[in-house]
Amino acid sequence: MYNLILLHHRQSTNSLHQNLSFILNKPFDVKFEQKPKPTLSSPHDVLVAVNYTGICGSDVHYWVEGRIGDFIVENPMVLGHESSGTVTQVGDAVKSVKVGDRVALEPGTPCRRCTPCLSGHYNLCDDMRFAATPPYDGTLTGFWSSPEDFCYKLPDHVTLQEGALVEPLAVAVHIVKQAEIKPGQTVVVMGAGPVGLLCCAVAKAYGASKIVSVDIQASRLEFAAKYAATHTFTPERVAATENAARLLKETGLVGGADAVIDASGAEPSIQTSIHVVRRGGIYVQGGMGKPDINFPIMALCTKEITCKGSFRYGSGDYKLAVEFVASGKVDVKALITGTVKFEDAEQAFKDVKEGKGIKVLIAGPNEK
Ligand SMILES: NC(=O)c1ccc[n+]([C@@H]2O[C@H](COP(=O)([O-])OP(=O)(O)OC[C@H]3O[C@@H](n4cnc5c(N)ncnc54)[C@H](O)[C@@H]3O)[C@@H](O)[C@H]2O)c1
Ligand SMILES: [Zn+2]
Ligand SMILES: [Zn+2]
After folding, report:
1. Residue span of the signal peptide, if any (predicted)?
2. Predicted TM-score (pTM) of this structure
């Protein structure tokens, strides 16, 4: 069955009538299948042929566990949400893009009517339809139908591979906006995976003067030092207060950092963060790990720390992410460690699970 589908795929890769998709049935059980090609459901929609898709921890989480928290894969679901593509069809009312434009896809469609949407925080929509979040299919598919305002045209000098990195970059833009980083400020970023590294790069673009990248993997810190961090720090298995004190001493952060971002989701780094942030500073939770942890609430209270969450991306974040790539202020190319063919999509999941490289892309199915 699998071989037959692949053979069929090879014969018809360029056919605009095919919609080959990479589907998760249940944990570690995937298949390739031709799904019906989507149709435009509104005159404001466009159809996009998907060229490249990045794989991140959440995709891998569904592949391994079939769920993230209360989001459970109950029916076969197309995976993927970090994609770029080429516009192949536009609705009658579409003004901002045209057929042939290369775009970064923002993969969540909000209702535009609920209180969070109307208050300008559409990432907090009560009725969000987000790619590869059950029950909604993802973007590892031939064609993706999207409202035109959730497609961001890539300038000619920005590649489609870079376009696929706009999604995690937009996550980092949102986190750094939540951290309210201003020129000359200091920031500590816990975790040097794609999200943490991009937070460092965005903080630099925002003018942060000292950027400390923290991770338990030496290879990731080596990369961070070359990429956007001014300092790196490796925590040890000691009390959070002890790690925090050594971090502040080694990096010369007298009195604490103006902002601390967690992009690891790890309980020890969240605890350390609260001891690293200065009195009156800002802490942002970007990482998603255990849903409940021990938290140093006394330090939060007595230091009057502003503690914020950060979820996906909202108004203006994708636009700024594209501008950062286009202007060269953020180098997303450096994060791409490899590209696999669409028929080898599962390999990309294995690589990410094993922590190989930083960002793995899947080409196609419409990349020739
Ligand atoms: N808030 C959002 O909207 C959003 C969006 C995407 C991803 N995320 C989350 O952001 C986090 C980072 O994503 P990623 O793709 O970079 O993941 P990743 O797994 O590649 O990176 C996490 C890094 O944290 C490091 N780490 C683990 N324990 C640590 C500790 N005790 N101290 C310091 N570092 C430690 C790991 O070595 C790894 O390098 C994940 O938790 C992910 O679920 C959140
Ligand atoms: Zn992602
Ligand atoms: Zn809404």
Report:
1. none
2. 0.95
